[in-house]
Amino acid sequence: MSPTGAYTGGTADPTGYIRDHDVHPPMDYPGYRSTALRHPKRPLELLPHMLTEVTAPLLGQDTLGELDNDLTRQHAGEPQGQRIIVHGQVRDSGGQPVPNTLIEIWQANAGGRYRHANDNWPSPLDPNFTGVGRTLTDGSGRYRFTTIRPGAYPWGNHTNAWRPAHIHFSLFGRAFAQRLVTQMYFPEDPLFFQDPMWNSIPDERARQRLVASFDYANTEEQWALAYRWDIVLRGREATVFEPVEGGD
Amino acid sequence: MSGTTPSQTVGPYLHIGLTWPDGAYAVPAAAPGGFWIRGVLTDGAERPVSDGLIETWQADPDGGFAHAYTPEGSATPRFRGFGRCPTGGSGEFGVFTRKPGRVPGPAGPQAPHIDVSVFARGMLNRVVTRLYFPDEPEANAADPVLTRITDPAARATLVAGTAEDGYRFDIRLQGEHETVFFDI
Known about the structure:
The complex is a heterodimer.
Chain A: E1 45-46, H1 51-54, E2 83-92, E3 102-107, E4 132-136, E5 142-148, E6 153-155, E7 161-163, E8 166-171, E9 180-185, H2 196-199, H3 204-208, E10 213-214, E11 225-228, E12 231-233
Parallel strand pairs in A: 2-11, 2-12
Antiparallel strand pairs in A: 2-5, 3-4, 3-8, 6-7, 8-9, 10-11
Chain B: E1 35-42, E2 52-58, E3 82-86, E4 92-97, E5 104-105, E6 108-109, E7 113-120, E8 127-132, H1 137-141, H2 152-156, E9 161-163, E10 166-168, E11 171-172, E12 182-183
């Protein structure tokens, strides 16, 4: 018996992953100026999913350092800003948890400054904050980071342009076709209305899926506010037979 | 069914979070038969994209995969098969790897190929292409994906060139010689 939802190998015609382009932004979005020269103009060619597309690298514990999921403890002192816990579950669109998958995050500091040579926004760097985290989801697809709430920052896209506070997320999933890079936002950010990356997602319900929920139940007294953000990757095209748990 | 999470750009500062010291090594530097795949990522004005990221995923030399569903599927022990390289100031990238074997396809084996993802500021979604090898003319002529591309000039964008230390594979996001990208 293979694990739940497993691709058992040995077939030349594996089941693919649902094409769900409707929820994603278009490659060409004039409001986000940098897309103009960076989107393919020819129609994409259909690629039926074969073995290379339904498999993905095994990136395990050896990818991680001990403090990789706690961005507040990677330096000698505490970083500036509001300490937060960001946690959630990674599932596919069929509802199946995605266990043991690598999540990488990167973000600005509390003043909205990235630790990057090209970021010249005149807000100070924080000597105690790099802004990088990594973790693996557990057996139930759950993940958890401790970090600080990033600040908003200005950029040059349009007049008086500001990015809403966000954390970049990268996920591998269990198939090359499931690979996802996205951004997590915070509830009721007043900057959404003018942000082209936010507005590039055509469906308002899909946009809202990028917003974490304030999570009072997991907020830790005298320590950190908590946010919950669940992430849903593409699911498989066919319903896989699931044995009934606790049967017979 | 629940709705999937939309994609967003990696932004200009992906180097903070998405670079690994050994990222470019899909196989160890000492791997027998290892070679470099080198190329340049350019935009629609034929300018180098210096804030991009290339990822590669491929079968091992025997055409097998060690992956989340079939960890026993690789005949080559500890074959990572995954490469990741940020682009440099001239849009250049390089991944060190071995040639993949022939992977089963819907009607017989596919030609040796490497799946390639491209991420960058200004790209709200990644794009995906495939690299094929110039020294596999017969396998390429029968490959189920390559043969879908009927325009020879477009098909040529998927076949690497040769280089002193391996292969050359430039990726053009837009323009006259725009690389073929796939809807996956």
